[in-house]
Every structure is written in C-alpha cells, then in structure tokens.
Specification:
7-stranded antiparallel sheet; ARM-type_fold; ARM-like
C-alpha cells in the first residue's frame, strides 16, 4: 500500500483501522476522521486541489462503509462527477453509487451529468455513467435516460452494449412496462456477436417472458440453438467453469425454455432433443454439472410431457436421492417434488428414501421432504401426511414455518378429507397447536361447515354437530386453548350444545362461566363466550345466578363490546319470552329481514325534534348554505358563519395589499373586486368552480349520490343428482412381507393410492387472461366464498361475520347469503373534504392554467360511456360462441362435432377498428379422432365485433340462457337460470376473448374463453373428451385468493356445484361440457392474483378405472376487475379528497400527444370513464367490481417536449394504486 497515489495521512488511516483490536477503538479513529474530512471539505476547491479532493471523496466512502455518516461529502461527490478528469469522474460516480439512494434529493443534480456522459465518445465515461444509472435510477428520472441507454445497444464497444442491457433490466425492475417500445432492440441483443452481451440479454428477456410468454414463443428456436452451441463448446474457453461450458448461461436458458414450453406442446417439442443432450453432457460428476442437471430436470417437468425424457430425468433424480451427500439429496427431493406433479409413479421407487429424509437431522432436508409430501397427497394417504405435518407443527418454533404448515394442513384437510368428523378433529389439532398463526378465515370455514352441514341429509348433519359438541366440550377441560379455537368452541356449544346427551345445559353453562374468567390474548374472545352463555340461558328457560353474576361482573369491563353483550344479557333476562324469541334454537342460518329505512327510530326522531333538536341537513345542502353565508358576509368583513371567506380584506395602511384568497363564487367576481387586485391570479372571464371544499356547480345543488351496493350474483340452480352413484376407487395396496419394519409401514401409508392400482397424471398449465386490456403480468389471489356450498372442500372466508346457513326447510334460500362487497363510501353524498383538500393538487393546480390566452384549450366536457344493460363497452368484443359467430352456444354434454358446428349462419359483423377486422368465422369440422389442432383452431379465431350489442343471456346461450336444451345423455336438460341482473358500477359487459387451450392429456382438452362482464369476470371452461371411454366424476376445484370470490355453474345433467367445487357425474366419450366460473372481488385486488384450479376425473375403459388429475393456473390482474364509473367533475372533486393514497409517476411515451388520446387509450384498454379535459390535463374514474373501490386518475400530457405523461393515481388502498400504476405505465408507454 505504499504507492505514490496515496498520501501519508491516508496510508496511516488504513493502517490504523486494520490494526484496531476493538470496535470502540475503530469508532474513535473514524470519528476523528469525520472531523478532519468536514474541515478539509469546507475549504475552497481551489485551495484543496483536485488530487486531494479525490482522496477526500475516497476517505468519505471508507467512513460511510464503516458505519459513520459523512453526508456533508455527498455534494462534493456529485460535483466530482462533473470533472473532465476520467479518474476523478469515476471516483465521483463510485461515491454516488455507494452513498446515495434512488430517492435521495441530490439525484436530480446528477441527471444532466449522466445524460452527457451517456453520449460521450469515451467508452469509459459511458460505462461509469451506466453503472451509476443502474444504482440510482428512479421513476422520475427514468424518462430522461431511457432513450440515451437504448441508443447504446448499438455501440461499437461490447462492454458498453453489455452494460446498456443490464441498465435496461434495472429500468424494467423500477418501472415495469417502460421497455415496451424497445422489445425489437432487445431481441437483436440476443443475437449479438459477443457472448457476454447475449448472456446479459437473457435476464431482461426472462423477465419479459415471465410477464407475457405468448409474445416470445417465436424465440424458442433461437434459445434452443444457443443452448446447443453452448453444450458443443462453441463459446470461448473463458466462459468455461471447471470444464463446464458457460453453466450459468445454460441455467438461465433452461429457465427461459421452461417458461415458454409450459403447457405448450408445439414449443415443447422443439426442446426435447436439446434437453436430452444437456442431461447427457452435464453429467460430469462435479457440483456445477449437478446444478445444470437439476435445472434441466425442472425444465423437463415444466414442459408438455414426453415419456422418454421423463424417464431420463427420473434416472438422474434417482442418483441424487440415493447419494450420501446431503446437498445432492436435497436437490433430489426438490426434483422429485417437481416430477411427481407430472406422474406420481416416479416416487414409488424412492419411498424408503423419502421416509428416511423425514427422520433426518438436517432441518432443511426435512422441510423440503414435507414439501414433497404435500405435493404427493391424495385421498388415500391424506391421513398419514397430515399426521406428519401436525407432528412438525407441534415441535417447530419458526413462525414462518408454522404459518406455512397450518395453511398446508388446512388446504389438505379441505381438499381430501375422508369424512367430516376427521376434518373437524384435524382442524381442532391445527387450532390447538398453531392457533397464533391460523387465519381467521379458516375458523369461519369450519363454522360454516358445522352450521350448513354436508348437505346430504338432516341425520348426517346432526351427527356432525353432535361430534363437534362432544369434541369441543372435552377441549374446555384443558387449561389453555388458543383464542381462535376458543371462539369456535364458544359458538358451536352455544348453537348446538343442547344436542348432547353426555351433559346437560346446566353443566355446560357452568363450565362456560368458569372459562370466561381465563386470560385471553384477544378481548373479543370473552364476547364470543358471553354470546354462548346468552344463547344457553335462552334455551334453558331460566337465568342461573352464575350467568347473571358473570354478566354483572363484566359490565365494568374496559372492552365496550363486552359491556354491550353483558348489558343486553341483563336486559333480556328481565323478559325470558323476549330472550327466547330473539335467540331461537338452531337459527344461525335463517335470513334476517332488515329495514334499511330504520323506521323503528321514527318515534325517537320525532320526540327529539319536538324537544328542540336541530333537524338533519344533508351534506350537499350544508355545503351550499356555507357558500351562501360566505357570500353574504363577504362585503362586511365579518365571518359569523365560521366558513372560509374568499373575498379580499380591507385596504391596509401599507402600500402592499394583502390578499386573502380568490373569489371562487361566481363566473365574474362580484363588484369587480378581483379586478382591483394589483397582484395575484388573473381570473377575469373564467368560470371559477373550485372552492375550499372542492368543485361546486354554479347552478342548483348537486344531489347526493347514494352508494350503490355492488352486484351480487346468485349461484346457478343445482341440477338433480345422478341416480347412479360415483365410482369409488379402491387403491391397490403395495405387496408387503409378513413382517414389516416401522419405516416400511410408514412408506406403505404414505404411498398408498399411488402406483399400479391408480395412476395419477398431472399436467400443469398456466394462462394469463389477456383481455381487452394492456396484457398486464399475471397476477396473484384466496377467496371469500359467496353463497351456497358448505362442503368440506369449499373454503369460505367471511371474516368478521357469523356463518350463514339456511335451515333444511328453507333450502331454496341457500346461496342467497353470500356476502357482497361494500360500496365505496366516498360518494357524492359523503362528507366534503376539508379546506385545501380539493383538486388543486389534482390538476397541477387548475388555477395555474391560463385559459384566457388564445392558445389555451378551453375546458371540454367528455360524455361518459354508457349503454343499456347487456351491451358491450367501446373497444371490447363479443365472445365467439362455440357454434360460430353470432349463434348461441351449443348445450354442454353434446358430441364434439355438434358442439363445433354452427347452429345458424352467422351475421356479417363490422370489422373491429380497435382490434382489427377479419373475415367471418368459418366453423371447424373434423371427427373425433382428429382433434390435434382443436386448441390451436379455437385459440386462433379471428376477433369479431358485433354489429349490435348482444344481451347477456343470448351471449351465454345454453350456459346461462333460458329454455330447455336437448342432451345426448337422455331427456331434455333445462338450462341453468340466468343470473339476475344487479346494479353495478357500470351495466354493460366489458368484453370477451377467444378460446385458448389451458391443458390437455390423453383424455381431455381444457379450453378457456374469457368474458369481462359489468359486475364480474366470467371464464367459460370447456372440457372436451378426446376418447371413446366415459369419464366419471369430472370435478373442478377452484382455489381463489382472498381478494376474489368465485361462483361455479354448469348446465350438464346432475352437475353439482358446492362452493368452489363443481362435479359432473358422467361425460360420455366424444362429448364436451362447459363450466362457468364467475369471479368478482371480495377485497381490494392486488396487482397480480393467481387462481389455481385442479381437475380430476375417472376414466372408465373396458371396466378398468384409472384416476387422472390436471393442474391449471389462472391469472387475474387489476386490469380485469376495473370497470368504468361515470361521475361528474363535482363528484370527482369530492372523491379526490376522500382517497388519500396517492401515486405520482412519469411515463415516457411516443404515442400520447393530447389529453384526448390519453383518455381514449385509458377508456379502451383499462376501462376508465372519462370525466373532463382541461387544457393539457384530463381526469378519469374507474371502480372495482364487487367492492366498488374507486380509482381516480389525473394525467398531464406534453411533458419533456411531448415525450412524457405525468400521471397521478388516487385510491384508498396502496395495493390498488400499485396495480393501476403498473397498468397505466404499460398502456401509455406502448
């Protein structure tokens, strides 16, 4: 370190830090260095000199890395980047990259310097600037540098091209969608002559492919060719690692191919040969070779299945799991978990190894084995797997692992429970062991099952409740019960405690009175216990002293809710007949008749008014009274009404006139007051509509808009069950020796249901629902079950509400209690925003627009989109029915040829201006044996726009329309009743898409068509049989996230829909059936919502029954749940102040030049209703289906010489704002 470039002081500093023997000694040295640097940098640059300044910046970096703050040197680092000396410039960029963050206030000072250096002829300066951009870029400066970086993709130096690609990847991570105009350049980077540039481009292409795989399917041959050249050692030897050619590039290519080939037979077939070659060449016996082999195995399991390739992958997995090296065994278990998703038979030969891994001391290996068990679970081994998971839940202390275990046990119990009693016992164990990590929705699912029963008959439901009561009464004897389990116990015993013959109501009541005095984490737990005590007292016919004492004791509780329960109990105890009427026996699922007008308060209100109380004044009238008072008091100088005054003050004694504000009251300022101002805003001749509380009309007051409850779709009527019972599968057990070891017995229990007796093949597929919107990346979400159902496999989450079930005599009402979303509270009738919270910040202040100038565009009102119910919105397309254009959809369960044939000659539609016109759809012919191109043919239909709006029943045809349908299964099949139209944010349907292949195997093709309705997203899933054999118990189980609700319906004979599960008892060979899945929002949606679905059926071929499974992934994003919400400008102003979550960002664009163009794009692609255009700004409004959450958007066009749009999004939830920001960025940048 004795180089001439180091000063003696710097050398001593490094030496002293290295010789420190304690942290305190080091901190003392660094603190002294901070003082010395502060003094040195406070001197003038001329006196310090460039060399000493550079050294000072390096010492600042040392200080910051050692934990001390040296923020006084940040501005000097920024100044250092502007030096012409290359070494000083690079030191300045390095210091900025290490010491500053993207949101730092000094970043703005770097923008021009970085832009200048990006255009420099010295490639070293360009590289230094690119490194800094990758570290410091943020959404505000992104439009300023993106064009400069894009030009560097054609630079003569390969190192510059590589760093430019890496910088663009960083820009994409900062603002997804910003590279939509650079896709072609990034594709060319893949073919760069330098392998380093090609390797760098794989990362950004992988990110883009994960968002929209379909747009890059044509690159599969290119990726395959590159991978083949790498495996043949055609890259320079500098890319080799331990004689393995470019292993990290191979891994990235394999991941890309896995994304492109998922559920795509054509893309997968291009990859089979090169994957086989990679598996053979990478098997070199070294660690890096194992890494490539493992990634190749994962890719093989992601593609469309190929038997030979799967067998080769299984052989490599065998070598991993049989290895003594724990790292390789870990890889083997992970790879085994991937391949069992395709076919569980590959796990049979490793069953003993799996059992050994469960007992291994390596915690990571044990957890990964549990993941494998979760994926291998079926109805035969669910008890064994859940026992193992519960055993680990009992001993682990990791909160995240406990949460994951609780979720998995719950999911397996709901999906594969052999009977209801086992389900309740298992859930009790989960609540008891992991009550602190169990979600409340899980408890509500269990309560709903107990309340609604299995739906088979009253006797089985009574036995279920009796079993639950007995189990929960036994739990009360334990000293400690988690709060979530105690709530379940209290509710169940209060509702059904009278059913038990083991104990009487008196003993049960006494036990609950003792339990209520225990310590609880959640104070609401005592409220549940007090509610149970009240119900039991109502059933007994008398009020025991113990119950009365408990109620009196807790009337002084600090919990207001508990006080209310106790006071109500004491009040009802005075009239036992009234208590019995208020709390009837077994009435938890009865419908309650509500009086929205609250007529029972009329007498109270009348008495209050008679006593002199002030009558209620609606907010709209209150607002105009405030305006009137302000206007009357404007000339006097007083303000007796307490409202803000907007007139000028009296003339002061000084020469400078004080201005209190601007008069927003009328079109022309009264008395010419505003004209007399010497300074301030010139508002002469301008309609001044903005005041302290927001926008106000010059005419009559605007009527308050009452919140519109969201549409709640009723579930389709269930069809009669088939007479023939479903075929029961009896799994063939493995042959066992006379005496089995403990591990062999565990293996037999684990792998039961897998093997020769029942082969399960799973094809995993995923599809992004690309509707009429921007093609947002797939999104992620668990659903709150609506109405109906009650089966174990139908999870419901009605958080905060007690379970609802109709009594057996009222079974016709089942499904009517599905919880709908709550309309957005921020309506025109809501409280006006406070002063200063209007749309001043919305329109970049409207008052800054000089509308009186000849060049300024006057405010232009845009009529909101509207139409009769059942019509399509502008820019969207009607769904092509299976029968051909314009015809009604053919009924389900018909021969495939008939299903694909047109029912009538299609009307000639007008070509779509937005999506491109095309010739009328030609029906597809073909026989049952020639279905290879079915998915491609249906997925490739030309999009047609209807000549006239098509009502919803006609669009659904046999699926949702009226009338009877003739089925080939026998008698006429009545059509499922159409869902009653309910008021929604916007009535017309939003659009539809062509049918796309989701998944297929040897027996069934699964096709999907998407339809965006006014109050829901409708997915039409077509299950087409490709075999002559009959398929029994075709079951689809949808598992929506918490943000979504789903209702399943089907018009096939005997179709049984229960919650999230629908079963078709019989599908004959060569026929098809259509299942409708309607989604709406139960909570504010996230940007990405994943909806997994599982399809299972039994193939009956010549008396041999074989079980099969398909795994499907559906994706919904914020785009799919937005609908236009027409509002006036006044209502927009009120909503703006009521939505505090704001996101403000800038989008680089070449296509949006006017606010009208911006509004048109947002209306057509994101379903926003235009509100108003003012100059270069525009405002739009949208709402979320189901919950009614409002999204407000303000856009300012023409920034940066017309190359950027500034967008402000306001919502009530930050998650919603994130999704809308991502969508706006994509559609405006494209």
């Amino acid at each position: 370190m004795s180089g001439a470039h180091l000063s003696k002081d710097f050398f001593e500093l490094i030496k002293n830090i290295g010789e420190c023997k304690s942290k305190q000694e080091e901190e003392k040295i660094v603190s002294n260095e901070v003082l010395a640097l502060r003094q040195r940098l406070s001197e003038s640059p001329a006196s310090i000199g460039l060399k000493r300044s550079k050294e000072a910046i390096v010492r600042v970096m040392y200080v910051e890395m050692l934990g001390q703050s040296a923020d006084f040197g940040h501005i000097h680092a920024v100044n250092m980047t502007q030096q012409t000396n290359l070494l000083c410039k690079r030191v300045g960029y390095l210091a900025c990259s290490l010491c500053l963050h993207p949101e730092h206030e000094l970043i703005t000072l770097l923008v021009n310097t970085m832009r200048r250096d990006l255009k420099s002829s010295n490639h070293l300066e360009v590289c230094a600037s690119l490194i800094a951009v990758s570290k410091l870029v943020n959404p505000e400066i992104l439009p300023a540098v993106i064009e400069c970086i894009a030009e560097l993709l054609e630079h003569t130096h390969e190192v510059v091209r590589k760093k430019a690609v890496m910088a663009l990847h960083r820009l994409h991570l900062v603002q997804p969608g910003c590279l939509s105009s650079l896709i072609d350049k990034l594709r060319r980077a893949l073919c760069d002559k330098d392998p380093a540039v090609m390797g760098a481009s794989l990362h950004i292409l992988h990110a883009l492919i994960d968002e929209t795989p379909a747009a890059f399917k044509d690159l599969v041959p290119s990726f395959v060719s590159i991978l083949k050249q790498i495996t043949e050692h055609r890259l320079p030897s500098s890319f080799d690692y331990h004689r393995m050619p470019a292993p990290w590039i191979q891994v990235k290519l394999l991941r890309i191919l896995a994304s492109l080939g998922a559920a795509d037979q054509r893309a997968s077939e291009h990859q089979y040969e090169v994957l086989y070659d990679v598996l053979k060449r990478a098997d070199t016996g070294i660690n890096i070779g194992y890494a490539v082999v493992y990634e190749c195995v994962r890719t093989v399991t992601s593609l469309y299945p190929n038997v030979q390739l799967l067998e080769t992958a299984a052989n490599h997995i065998s070598r991993f799991v049989s290895s003594d090296n724990h790292n390789l065994k870990y890889l083997g278990i992970k790879a085994l978990a991937s391949i069992v998703g395709v076919n569980q038979k590959y796990a049979l030969e490793h069953q003993m190894v799996v059992v050994e891994c469960l007992e291994d001391n390596d915690e990571t290996l044990k957890r990964k084995t549990l993941d494998l068990l979760f994926k291998m679970t079926n109805s035969a081994n669910v008890a064994f797997v859940t026992d193992k998971l519960i055993a680990h839940l009992r001993v682990t202390t990791d909160v995240h692992f406990r949460t994951e275990l609780a979720e998995r046990i719950t999911l397996l119990a709901e999906r594969y429970a052999p009977d209801n009693a086992w389900f309740i016992t298992t859930m009790n164990a989960v609540f008891e062991l992991g009550g602190d990590v169990v979600q409340p929705e899980t408890a509500h699912n269990l309560l709903r099952l107990i309340a609604e029963g299995s739906g088979e008959d009253d006797e089985s439901d009574t036995q279920l409740r009796l079993h639950a009561v007995s189990a929960y009464y036994g739990l009360l004897q334990k000293p400690h019960i988690p709060d979530v389990l105690m709530k379940v116990v209290a509710w169940t015993l209060g509702e059904y405690g009278y059913l038990s013959d083991e104990f009487g109501l008196e003993a049960l009541l006494e036990t609950l009175c003792d339990v209520i005095d225990r310590q609880f984490t959640d104070e609401d737990t005592r409220c549940w216990l007090m509610s149970a005590i009240t119900k039991l007292v109502a059933q007994m016919g008398a009020v025991p002293d113990g119950a009365a004492d408990v109620a009196k004791k807790y009337t002084a509780s600090k919990s207001v809710h508990l006080q209310q329960y106790c006071v109500e109990f004491l009040a009802l105890a005075q009239d036992h007949a009234l208590m019995a009427e208020v709390l009837p026996v077994d009435a938890s699922c009865d419908d309650l008749e509500l009086d929205p007008s609250l007529a029972f308060l009329d007498a109270f209100v009348a008495q209050a008014l008679a006593n002199g109380a002030a009558p209620y004044v609606p907010p709209s009238e209150r607002r105009h009274e405030l305006h009137g008072a302000g206007a009357d008091g404007g000339s006097s100088g007083g303000n007796s009404s307490g409202a803000l005054r907007f007139s000028e003050y009296a003339d002061p004694q000084e020469s400078v006139r004080a201005i209190g504000g601007v008069n927003f009251e009328s079109l022309t300022p009264p008395g010419g007051a505003a004209a007399g101002l010497s300074t301030g805003l010139n508002t002469a001749g301008i309609a001044q509509r903005w005041g302290a509380e927001g926008y106000r009309e010059a005419g009559p007051p605007i009527a308050s808009a009452a919140p519109t409850p969201p549409a709640t779709a009723a579930a389709a009527a269930a069809m009669p069950a088939a007479n023939a019972p479903p075929v029961q599968m009896a799994p063939r057990s493995l042959s066992q020796p006379a005496q089995q070891s403990e591990r062999e017995r565990m293996a037999a229990a684990l792998f039961s249901g897998v093997g020769a007796g029942q082969t399960t093949r799973t094809v995993s597929a995923s599809l992004g629902l690309a509707g009429a919107g921007a093609g947002a990346p797939p999104a992620a979400a668990a659903a709150v079950g609506g109405g109906g159902g009650g089966a174990v496999g139908s999870p419901v989450a009605t958080a905060g509400a007690k379970p609802a079930r109709d009594k057996k005599p009222k079974s016709a009402k089942k499904g009517a209690n599905g919880a709908g979303g709550v309309a957005d509270g921020a309506t025109a009738g809501g409280t006006a925003p406070a002063a200063g919270a209007g749309l001043g910040d919305l329109l970049g202040d409207l008052l800054d627009l000089d509308l009186s100038s000849p060049t300024a565009a006057p405010p232009m009102a845009v009529a909101p989109a509207s139409g009769p119910p059942g019509t399509l919105l502008p820019g969207t397309l009607d769904l092509l029915s299976l029968g051909g254009g314009g015809g009604a959809m053919q009924p389900p369960a018909q021969p495939l040829d008939a299903l694909l044939a047109p029912t009538s000659a299609p009307a000639q539609p007008k070509p779509s201006v937005l999506h491109g016109g095309g010739p009328p759809f030609a029906p597809i012919g073909g026989s049952l044996g020639n279905l290879a191109g079915l998915a491609d043919a249906l997925g490739g239909m030309p999009a047609l726009a209807p000549t006239l709006p098509t009502p919803m029943p006609a669009m659904l045809g046999a699926v949702g329309g009226g009338g009877a349908m003739q089925s080939t299964l026998g008698a006429a099949v009545p059509a499922a009743p159409a869902t009653p139209a309910a008021p929604a944010v916007h009535a017309p349907p939003v659009g539809a898409g062509a049918r796309t292949s989701l998944a297929m195997d040897g027996c069934v093709d699964v096709l999907m068509a998407q339809r965006l309705l006014a109050d829901a997203v409708s997915l039409e899933l077509t299950f087409a049989s490709k075999t002559h054999s009959s398929l029994r118990n075709l079951t689809i189980n949808v598992e929506p996230p918490a943000q979504l609700r789903v209702a399943l319906s089907c018009a096939a004979v005997g179709a049984d829909a229960r919650g999230h599960r629908l079963t078709v008892p019989l599908l004959h060979g060569g026929q098809a059936v259509v299942v409708i899945a309607r989604f709406d929002c139960a909570d504010v949606p996230t940007p990405q919502m994943r909806v997994p679905a599982f399809v299972s059926y039994m193939e009956d071929q010549l008396g041999k029954v074989e079980g099969r499974t398909l795994s499907i992934q559906l994706y919904l994003s914020t785009e799919h749940v937005l609908r236009p919400k027409p509002v006036s400008t006044a209502q927009f102003g009120e909503l703006w102040g009521a939505h505090p979550s704001q996101r403000k960002f800038t989008v680089a664009t070449k296509t949006i030049a006017t606010p009208q163009a911006c509004m048109q794009v947002m209306e057509e692609r994101l379903h926003f209703a235009p509100v108003q255009v003012i100059g270069t700004e525009c405002i739009m409004c949208s709402a979320v289906i189901g919950v009614g959450a409002t999204v407000l958007v303000h856009a300012k066009v023409g920034l940066m010489n017309g190359s950027a749009v500034e967008v402000t999004v306001r919502t009530k939830d930050n998650r919603m704002g994130e999704g809308v920001q991502r969508l706006c960025t994509q559609v405006l940048a494209s």
